[in-house]
Design brief:
It contains 11 helices and 14 strands. By secondary structure, the protein is of the alpha+beta class. The strands form 4 sheets. Strands 3-4-6-5 form a 4-stranded antiparallel sheet, covered by helices on one side. Strands 8-7-13-14 form a 4-stranded antiparallel sheet, covered by helices on one side. A 4-stranded antiparallel sheet has the order 11-10-9-12. It folds into 2 domains: 60-138, 2-Layer Sandwich (Ribosomal Protein S8, Chain: A, domain 1); 143-351, Cyclic phosphodiesterase (Cyclic Phosphodiesterase, Chain: A, Alpha-Beta Complex). Helix content is 35%, strand content 23%. Residues 65-133 form the K Homology domain. Keywords: RNA-binding. This is ACYPI008739 protein. InterPro entries: AKAP7-like_phosphoesterase, ASCC1, Cyclic_Pdiesterase, KH_dom, KH_dom_type_1, KH_dom_type_1_sf. One of its GO terms (biological process) is DNA alkylation repair.
């Protein structure tokens, strides 16, 4: 046997290297001849995690002697599940020995899975969940959990900072008024979500209520006065900055943010943070703002990775104090929206 080109055994769509040189060298050809027969006779491969998964809350029922599961999935991900020429769907059905019905765009977002055994249903569900999770990671964020950081003093100080930066650093590469956050939208972001339909938004609202009862209230927060002071940027090179932010230091709020992030991460709504803790920051200048991108790329341009030179800004205003904010509530905010008060529209608000 050529060790660099071992024979491949195909079982239920999965490929396994066949090492027979040491134990049964005469069986290679026979095994290869009967690959198809073996594949058809073996049961569907089911991941160990699928079998051990807690599925008490899944409403798998019997219909016509077959197991049936109705799975609510946003239609945003149907194309990924079906694939080109339905190849993904056919492969998924073959792998799990199930039949999967994808609803039309006019029907409710309910995928129907039918199979002979419960294990087959769980295997199909697990694979669909994995496809949706990968697809969700590629979508733009739609909602975020935020702490508004606005009051008259902070707004006045921020507008004064903005004027001084434009006056004294306006000649620096990339620095324009379009980089600045709206003064009524200053906030701390705890975590971000991709919520694709009304059902997912409703679930996020219910989870916010659970978060209030299991995390926020038991913490019995004492100090809700947060000082916003100092500058920093999201990358290590101040000459190539995409986000400039004001720093916030509060052990209690840091603990609260970390617990909320972990809660939604465990619920499969939030991605893990880049470090061990949520980065508490109030964005002041951001090249990702739509108006700035449009000014560079045009209204129909593709978003690009733009930067500006913040060295002079940081040098001059590194210790700038914006003021103290007393936190009163936590919002589930909608991106790219504006409420009547100038802040982001909220799907729900929790009082602290």
């Amino acid at each position: 046997m050529d060790v660099l080109r071992p024979k491949i055994l195909n079982i239920d769509g999965r490929q396994y290297r066949l090492n027979t040189a040491d134990c049964c060298p005469n069986e290679c050809d026979e095994t290869e001849t009967h690959n198809t027969e073996m594949s058809e006779s073996l049961p569907a491969y089911v991941e160990r995690d699928d079998i051990d998964e807690e599925c008490d809350d899944l409403n798998i029922y019997m219909e016509g002697g077959r197991c049936v599961l109705k799975l609510e999935v946003p239609n945003t991900f149907y194309g990924l599940i079906i694939g080109r020429s339905r190849e993904n769907l056919k492969h998924l059905e073959y792998q799990t020995k199930t039949r999967i019905k994808i609803p039309s765009m006019k029907e409710k977002n309910i995928i129907t899975i039918k199979g002979e055994q419960r294990a087959h249903i769980l295997s199909a569900k697990s694979k669909i969940d994995a496809i949706v999770k990968r697809g969700r990671a590629k979508q733009s964020m739609t909602h975020f959990v935020s702490l508004p950081m606005v009051n008259p003093i902070v707004i006045d100080n921020y507008l004064a900072f903005k004027k001084m930066v434009l006056d004294e650093c306006g000649q620096c590469r990339g620095v324009t008024e379009l980089l600045f956050q709206d003064q009524l939208r200053l906030h701390l972001t705890i975590t971000c979500f991709v919520l694709c339909d009304a059902a997912e938004i409703k679930r996020a609202i219910n989870l916010m209520d659970q978060c209030e009862n299991t995390i926020i209230k038991p913490m019995n927060l004492k100090s809700l006065d947060i000082l916003v002071s100092g500058l920093d940027c999201m990358n290590d090179d101040p000459s190539e900055v995409n986000v400039l932010y004001a720093k916030v230091k509060s052990p209690e709020i840091q603990m609260l943010a970390d617990k909320i992030q972990t809660f939604f991460q465990d619920c499969d709504l939030a991605l893990p943070p880049r470090s061990n803790h949520v980065k508490l920051h109030v964005t002041l200048m951001n090249t990702g703002f739509y108006e700035y991108q449009a000014s560079v790329n045009g209204d129909f341009g593709n978003p690009s990775h733009l930067t500006f030179d913040a060295r002079k800004i940081i040098e001059k205003f590194n210790d700038y104090t914006f003021g103290t904010v007393q936190l009163t509530d936590i919002h589930l905010s909608q991106r790219h929206t504006t409420d009547s008060n100038g802040y982001y529209k909220s799907s729900t608000v929790l009082k602290l």
